[in-house]
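Holo model, adenosine-5'-triphosphate. Inputs:
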Amino acid sequence: MFFKTIKFKLTFWYVVILGIILTTFSLFLYFTLSDSLHRGLDNKIKTTAEVIASSMRSPLGGGPTIADVDRIMTEHFGIRPLGRFVQVLDESGRVGGKSTNLRNVKIPISVQTLREAARGRVTFETIKGMGKYPLRVVTLPIIENGRMVGIVQVGSSVEGVVEALHQLFLILLIAVPAALLVTSVGGLFLANKALRPVDEITQTARRIGFGDLSQRIRMKRVNDEIGRLAATFDEMIAKLEESFQQVKRFTADASHELKTPLTILRGEVEVGLKKKRDLGEYRRILTSNLEEIDRMSLIVEDLLTLSRADMGELKMEREKVDLSRLARGVWEDLQLLAQGKGVLLKFMDDGFTKVDGAPLRLRQLILNLVENGIKYTPSGGEVELMVKGDRGSGVVRLEVSDTGVGIAQEDLERVFDRFFRVDKARSRETGGTGLGLSICKWIAQAHQGQIEVQSELGKGSTFTVTIPLKN
Ligand SMILES: Nc1ncnc2c1ncn2[C@@H]1O[C@H](COP(=O)(O)OP(=O)(O)OP(=O)(O)O)[C@@H](O)[C@H]1O
Ligand SMILES: [Mg+2]
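Output:
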């Protein structure tokens, strides 16, 4: 499990990459230092050899002696440099003199090296087996008048170089793994710290999965990636909870709405069946039943329309529709209803009013609005239906204003909600279920339009629909 976590993977790759970098760096450091130390040693013994060779070139009788070598070294270097072994040979390769520190040991010289010296070339060699550490030896010919007259050999133990490199190796061997260890612990700590909020989110999501939609993460940090994730998550859950509540309310309201006519229906039928009645009475009961059935059919139809619209199943066949003509039709059809209620229904149109839409739906929209106007305006009032095309803003405005009861400010927001009715008791008398305006809102939005309401309690209301013009 642990090996599959992000924090492990992050830390692992972090440490691997750092490991590669540190190892490369260490190797580079080691070899550069090794090279420079070896070169330094070669330069030192070569310089010593050159100094001795130039002192030897003076008119010498016999070959240089042991005393000579020591004396030259003391003269030129102050004191005999410790750790330098000097050996002077004649042209045939016999030892002529050497520094006292060599005692009776002889620095070996190969035929190959002798031959190189005879050609006037300098040779560097590493000779093993002369002590604990190998000896680095330079073999330098003494040239006089273009002829090799002798050879100087200066040797020095590589102990210093080897020891320094060994030390470095040990330091790196401890330091690199130690650095990697610290890094992995630190990396794990940091990754853990950075990812802990993700665990929090997971936990909340799990609780929500068990059905508790009221859960929120409510993370304090908002400005980093995870904070934003948590905030987005919270927003999403809030919306989810909201629509979940809506569905719940909708179902409850719908069942309630259907239950009332059903109860009435049942009551009437029961009463009818209690005893034998005459034909006229049966007819009255059945007529009343039919009313309730009609009512339920209307509700079910509205519900179906809305739920299909929610699921996006209601595809609207669009065509060029003249809103003003549609509105005039509604106005004519509702004259009777208005007159019956003693309400004056007026109509006005102006300008180019064609839109791209579904005529039946748009008619339903106008009808619902005008019906509402008549329904919520007392006798003696007025309802005015107005359609106005405005090329400037590219929309057609449809206004239904009445001089009716009006809507309270706090209810304005909710009149478009499903099943919302300001006065439930009175609405039932007039036959409303509170679905009309939600259907209007859906129709307006499906036409890329908007619906708004302005109202003052006791004075009247104005519903305004705007739909884009079609040229
Ligand atoms: N013109 C209006 N004047 C005052 N109140 C209104 C007006 N139009 C709507 N309302 C209020 O808004 C509520 C919702 O209206 P909506 O048309 O959605 O439902 P309804 O008319 O009650 O029922 P139906 O589903 O039959 O249309 C109404 O119950 C009423 O209280
Ligand atoms: Mg209505």
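The CA atoms of residues 27 and 172 lie 9 Å apart. Residues 368, 372-373, 376, 402, 404-407, 415, 420-423, 427, 432-437, 461 surround adenosine-5'-triphosphate (ligand 1) (CB under 6 Å).
Archived with the compound record.
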